[in-house]
């Protein structure tokens, strides 16, 4: 009999992160940091390439700079949210509250400003992993929330009222 804990499985099956950063040096630093901390990485220097990578590889998490050479990061988030609930963290030089609020309202799950602490970045990635694990029903926790006629299936990204699926925008979801 072989007993394996969830933590041991996580060490073998590393989370796949998509790093979307226009600056090659920053992109390389971030992907090296993540790889050195048990993450697999794919990278992209533009929004269009990142969309293709996200669709092709279905990463577990996305880190995106809001300033991309071919599109605004908000457009990237909107386009991802049309077909996926992949956790998205914005990394930006912009520190204005309005920008942060807008990104979160558009569907980002987190927002960090540059310069950033590597320890904080890794901690925020661990938080996204925990939320992802909960949504996928790991650790024996249910991935379905029910309250009266409302039912939300986090693993499938669907919501139901009286067993009829309701279509929500990412923000509504």
Describe the structure.
It is a single chain. This protein is an alpha/beta fold and 173 residues long. The protein contains 6 helices and 9 strands, in the order H-E-H-E-H-E-H-E-H-E-H-E-E-E-E. It has helices at residues 6-12, 24-35, 47-57, 73-81, 97-106, 118-135; strands at residues 15-20, 39-44, 61-65, 88-92, 110-113, 144-147, 150-153, 158-161, 164-166. A 5-stranded parallel sheet has the order 2-1-3-4-5, sandwiched between helices. A 4-stranded antiparallel sheet has the order 6-7-8-9, with no helix packed on it. Helix 2 (24-35) links the parallel strand 1 and strand 2 (39-44). Helix 3 packs parallel to helix 4 (73-81). The longest helix is centred in the C-terminal third of the chain and has 18 residues, at 118-135. Residues 6-12 have low confidence and may be disordered.
Set out the fold topology.
Layout: H1 6-12, E1 15-20, H2 24-35, E2 39-44, H3 47-57, E3 61-65, H4 73-81, E4 88-92, H5 97-106, E5 110-113, H6 118-135, E6 144-147, E7 150-153, E8 158-161, E9 164-166
Parallel strand pairs: 1-2, 1-3, 3-4, 4-5
Antiparallel strand pairs: 6-7, 7-8, 8-9
Helix pairs in contact: 3-4
Provide a concise account of the structure shown.
The chain has helices spanning 6-12, 24-35, 47-57, 73-81, 97-106, 118-135, and strands spanning 15-20, 39-44, 61-65, 88-92, 110-113, 144-147, 150-153, 158-161, 164-166. By secondary structure, it is α/β, with parallel strands linked by helices. The chain is globular and about 50 Å long.
